[in-house]
Amino acid sequence: xxxxxxxxxxxxxxxxxxxxxxxxxxxxxxxxxxxxxxxxxxxxxxxxxxxxxxxxxxxxxxxxxxxxxxxxxxxxxxxxxxxxxxxxxxxxxxxxxxxxxxxxxxxxxxxxxxxxxxxxxxxxxxx
Length: 127
Hints:
- This protein is mostly beta strands.
- The protein has no helices and six strands.
- A hairpin with a 5-residue loop joins strand 2 and strand 3.
């Protein structure tokens, strides 16, 4: 049964417990393995600038100064369509091509040295 509001789903399983390790009112953590896989372009969620009307990423690229004609590395903000997210990763459906260099942290003006790790199964510490 899937809850449309939270996208959580209820699963009931029946298993053999001949050694009696599982008892009434005990809980277990389970992982549901889905058979369908697809290749996606995924980025750390810290590389996305989230906004009410569109989300964007910053592509690092060579830019040429119009006056001096000198080239330098800069960033170009691009609108990005996001797909599914898993852990600290988010799928990029459009706006970025494979092989392009993306600013992964600090897109909100923060410090790149404080970038959190990007993990598909993060386990934050209780504080």
